[in-house]
Write a structure and sequence with these properties.
alpha/beta, 12 helices, 3 domains, Rossmann fold
Length: 452
């Protein structure tokens, strides 16, 4: 039986501490926190769990500031429309008031707007000082007999009290905790404005993520549950990666880079999105190298394919075959997120790579049979007077697959033969998108290794 969890959203003005409280309730750093005005944009979904309430879960959502209706930033206008559409579907909103400044006119306007939409509110007086009841006692009375809580990220008891209330009032069991299972998670990665959020929305068949032609609309990664071929997965949409942003002078860019890196470490399979109009750039190649370095399953998706004519498509494929020769093991899917074309092929690739990553069914006997066949087809080269010998192999890791080959003079094995073995194993084992790794270990037998 599938259970639908109540959704609790944290709302309020910009910079009242929503993301800080969100992280405190989760008891881990999930949302970006910085004194930069209006850092949070997308709604961030996470499940609250608690040892004292086993089997009970609450879906908690961090949102951006709602006080941007007069902003000149077009992204802010898109964000507001997106957020208000979402808030009409939640079960309850925790409305945060900054206790250090009290209830402002901006708070009152937002409270009225939320109540006019019929949205149930619980008031959270955040950044509360236990010794100062001035704002709380006087102004909470103005809001009527609604639920009121005082919290501070520095006051453990206040957070425990709010968490307890959420679990006891809204906690429900769920069928599976897929959100915490990396083996069921895939994510979209790529440069800004490649179409990652548009692809995420197309797969989800909803406007779950903010989409804009302005690069950098997405600032943090966000998760959604998705069913593909009746199997539940977690989809992660990420901010555009700017390679070497960790050395960028802009602190926000550095934070976004590291958050995207955390997202990469949180997935089983990475879907690398390329903008067909822009082509494969040096930045794109660096991003793919980063994915390979972390040994994630890889799918290459070329988005905006419908914008190229036949001649341009032919040239693009030739460029990709040349630039991505080392990634030829990865499925390459051509799609249009806006036209919703190529999505069926993408879903098939996702299930194929995820299954190959998690359950390849490879045995040691099978590995050695393939190794012997590869050696018979193409003998290892000589190293000096003696031939390099590959004796046997065994599996050292299954997720993803990694092999150890034992033999002699393996430290002298040339790179081209290593590539030959990797490609041979990939072809024989049918492992699409899997970053197969082969390790080598020298063994020495004085009675046999002196003779070829």
């Amino acid at each position: 039986m599938t259970y639908s969890l109540p959704i609790i959203a944290l709302v309020g003005r910009t910079n009242v501490g929503k993301s800080s409280l969100f992280n405190a309730l989760l008891q881990r750093k999930q949302a970006l926190v910085h004194d930069h005005h209006g850092l949070t944009r997308d709604c961030l979904f996470e499940y609250l769990t608690d040892e004292e309430h086993p089997g009970q879960n609450v879906c908690c959502v961090d949102t951006g500031g709602l006080d941007r209706r007069h902003s000149d930033d077009p992204i802010d206008r898109i964000f507001l429309q997106h957020t208000w559409t979402f808030l009409r579907q939640v079960d309850r909103c925790l409305f945060l008031v900054d206790s250090s400044v009290g209830l402002l006119d901006g708070d009152k306007e937002l409270i009225k707007a939320l109540q006019n939409e019929g949205i149930a509110l619980t008031f959270v007086w955040h950044k509360s000082d236990a010794d100062d009841n001035h704002h709380f006692e006087r102004e909470s009375a103005l809001l009527g007999e609604s639920e009121h809580f005082r919290t501070s990220i520095h006051d453990h008891y206040s957070l425990v009290n709010l968490r307890k209330h959420l679990f006891e009032t809204y906690g429900r069991p769920q069928q599976s905790d897929v959100f915490s299972n990396i083996e069921k998670t895939f994510g979209f990665f790529g440069r800004p404005n490649a179409g990652k959020s548009s692809l995420s929305n197309a797969l989800l068949r909803t406007d779950a993520f903010l989409v804009s032609e302005i690069p950098g609309t997405t600032r943090d990664f966000s998760k959604r549950s998705i069913f593909i071929d009746q199997e539940e997965y977690v989809l992660i949409d990420t901010a555009g990666i700017i390679p070497n942003a960790q050395r960028h002078s802009d602190q926000i860019e550095r934070m976004i880079f590291y958050r995207t890196l955390i997202a990469l470490k949180s997935v089983c399979t990475a879907i690398f999105v390329v903008d067909a109009e822009a082509g494969m750039t040096k930045q794109d190649l660096k991003i793919v190298e980063m994915i390979e370095k972390h040994r994630r399953g890889l799918i290459i998706v070329v988005n905006k394919w419908d914008l190229l004519d036949d001649k341009q498509q032919k040239f693009f494929k030739e460029q990709m075959n040349y630039e991505c020769k080392a990634m030829s093991y990865a499925p390459m899917i051509f799609v249009s997120a806006t036209e919703k074309k190529g999505l069926k092929a993408l879903c098939s690739a996702i299930t194929a790579v995820m299954h190959a990553f998690l359950d390849n069914g490879v045995s040691t006997g099978q590995i050695n049979k393939i190794l012997n066949e590869l050696i018979e087809s193409h003998q290892p080269p000589l190293a000096g007077k003696n031939r390099i010998k590959l004796r046997y192999a065994h599996i050292v890791d299954q997720k993803p697959l990694a092999l150890m080959i034992h033999g002699t003079q393996l430290d002298k094995l040339p790179k081209h033969y290593d590539r030959y073995l990797i490609n041979g194993f990939r072809k024989a084992l049918d492992l699409p998108g899997i970053p197969l790794k082969i390790l080598y270990k020298n063994s020495f037998n004085p009675y046999t290794d002196n003779n070829d």
